[in-house]
Amino acid sequence: MIGRHSLFFLFLVPAFLMTYAPIKALYDSSSQSEYYSHIALIPLVSIYLVFQKRKRIFCPQASTNGCGAHSRKTGRAAGIALLSAGAFVYLVGRGVGEAVNQNDFTSIVSLSSVMFINGGFILAYGLPAFRAALFPLLFLIFIIPIPSALMDGIIYFLQVGSTELTHLLFLATGIPFLREGFVFHLTGISIEVAKECSGIRSSLALLITAVLAGHLFLKTVGRKMILAAAIVPVTMFKNGIRILILTLMGTYSDPRWLTQSSLHRDGGILFFILALVLMAPILYWLKRSEQSIFVPPSPQSPPVRGEE
């Protein structure tokens, strides 16, 4: 097993070197760094998940056939194919590096790194171990920056949804206002739901949290997908709440609430916690509904024969 760990480490080194410089450049970019502060944590989470299930991953049939017979099934063809594909994607990324922006270049290179790690894992430990470690290895996908075109589409979608939720909240409060697209006109003040109000950073953090929570607490794929999808309305709702509070404080208290307050500048953490609070009952309901399916029926006592 030590030899297999050493082999896998030999694949980790080039995978790390592939992405270190591009990700560092992305972190140093003031326009992109705020979107990807989570990247450094993703490998640590994957390592923890692998360590947590190390006996099942690295010795999947220890209780029956022993580790040796299983470990020799290395899946060389699948591992080499994935390694080759990763190397090819990396070469393509290097070839088009000057034609795309830093974000998209890092996306291509990070994808190649994830493919390289997965291929190296298969080659070192075999397909049974790869299947046992599938979630931690696929979780590494979150180190891949979202391509710019897709990111712009997601931000616009969240911007539109947040605007609609804000509209409904304004209606619920009874505050007189006029709306023009993303702009709300109130007495003496106008508010625009800008791209920065989309909550893309917290949305990414919520998605990662929901995927991880689904893996840890839920069993069925359908319920895991529902939990992940729930972040969309939750994100839009907490964005609407934040905009409503800032607007009310700016309108009826002090306009500086909209530009200089700590709630405007640093309130993301507070409203991220609000989103987690809103997600908690959804997870609880999904887990309860799942338990009602998987709980085995209680054994019935044998019927009592009546007296004749």
List the helices and strands and how they pair.
Blueprint: H1 2-28, H2 42-52, H3 54-58, H4 67-71, H5 76-96, H6 102-125, H7 127-132, H8 134-138, H9 148-173, E1 178-180, E2 183-186, E3 189-192, H10 200-217, H11 221-229, H12 231-252, H13 262-266, H14 268-294
Antiparallel strand pairs: 1-2, 2-3
Structural features, described:
This protein folds into two domains: 2-145, no CATH class; 150-293, no CATH class. Helix content is 69%, strand content 4%. The protein has 14 helices and three strands. The protein has helices spanning 2-28, 42-52, 54-58, 67-71, 76-96, 102-125, 127-132, 134-138, 148-173, 200-217, 221-229, 231-252, 262-266, 268-294, and strands spanning 178-180, 183-186, 189-192. A three-stranded antiparallel sheet has the order 1-2-3, covered by helices on one side. Strand 2 and strand 3 form a beta hairpin. The protein starts with a helix and ends in a 14-residue tail after the last helix. The model is unreliable at 62-66 and 68-72 (pLDDT under 50).
In brief:
The chain has helices at residues 2-28, 42-52, 54-58, 67-71, 76-96, 102-125, 127-132, 134-138, 148-173, 200-217, 221-229, 231-252, 262-266, 268-294, and strands at 178-180, 183-186, 189-192.
